[in-house]
Amino acid sequence: MPAPKPAPASDPTRASWSPDELLPDGLLERFRGRAAGHDRENTFPHDDLAELRERGYLRAFVPTDRGGAGLGLEQVASLQSRLATAAPATALAVNMHLVWTGCAAVLHARGDDSLDLVLEDAAHDEVFAFGVSEPGNDLVLFDSVTSADPTGDGGYRFTGTKVSTSLSPVWTRLGVFGRDDSDPDSPALVHGFVHRDQPGHASLEDWDTLGMRATQSHTTRLAGVEVPASRIVRRLPVGPSADPFVFAVFAVFETTVAAVYRGLARRALELAVESALGTTSRRAGGAARALDPVLRWRVADAGLAVDGLEPQVDQIARDVDALVDHGADWPRLVLGLKTRATETARAVVEQAVTVAGGSSYRSSSELGRLQRDVLAGRFHPSSTDSAHATIAAALLGPGA
Q1: Is the same domain home to 120 and 143?
Q2: Average pLDDT in the 350-357 region?
Q3: Domain count, the chain
């Protein structure tokens, strides 16, 4: 394998991790200008991805000695929130690549090099997708309805269906897992990475949703796709696990998803303020609507919600970076963060829509698109119901 490509000296990721330098206003305006078209036409934002790749964004978590930016989770979460203010679906799509590279970085920081192959591939601009979610599997990482059949030499063949595979048109590496039942007394969950150029997988190209359409998260069918031993990264018992790999997946996934919806909420608040300041009321004699006390309350309520969300994302991400040991509290902390972020974003959008009025109901309205995009937050694992069950168990003990 050739040496990792070093980032060019002009690459902003080498000079600073500042969100407004890595994602300057002009770049975000281009993304925002394209977002409506991708939503309307149900297409993937290839131009957005190309510009992000050129800026080294896909190498955000890759160590500097491998040509990346060497950023931590707090920094990447900040970037993802900024990106989501312009193009939430682009941010959510790229988020799945950042989940795998972030997991590798989190493990590496803890002395675990089992996912260093991810950092190595990402340094060569490979694009990772998250092939974990399955229809009918509400246990997420703790069980699988995909079969993982051993090949006898340490590798496995995976057969099953994965849903919500963001980045479907462009991924080159797909992280998958399945259940190995070859030993009925000791079933195992096996994790590995599929390369796009190998046979045995297919995209159903069936992504036609209300919102987050540009993610192009098609269903992926695995039909005995083989993953060699060199790309098998974990073999765990079925059920909850304290393995660092599981911690890394949950911590990075939930935190970065929360960051995307934080950015969406920020933008909804901005649009509410713009609407209030930019329109007048005939009922109030032509005065600015921003003087209406009810409308002012709604904008303030949205602002309070966004302000309360900001430090929550930062603190959880900071604790992950600092190797803080929350022990058994980690699951409820990260699941709670994702739930609060997605539900808060939905509430902020609802207030913004009320402030903007009927114009936000038009399909051409940016705020109208945010109404649809924010709905996706409820469907990312873990669901709101699942998060409540986990937190109840942590606070009250196992249920009946």
Answers
A1: no
A2: 96
A3: 3
Domain end position, chosen among 237, 270, 290:
237
Considering only 9-23, 36-50, 340-354, which range has the smallest mean pLDDT? Answer: 9-23
Domain enclosing residue 80, as ranges: 12-125
Are 102 and 153 found together in one domain? no
Q: CATH number of the domain that 49 lies in?
A: 1.10.540.10
Peptide bond preceding 382 in cis form (omega within 30 of 0)? yes
Q: Are residues 266 and 386 in the same domain?
A: yes
Q: Which amino acid is at 377?
A: G
> Does 143 have pLDDT greater than 90?
yes
Give the pLDDT mean for 344-362. Answer: 96
Q: Give residue 384's identity as a one-letter amino acid code.
A: T
pLDDT of residue 10: 37
pLDDT at 212 over 80: yes
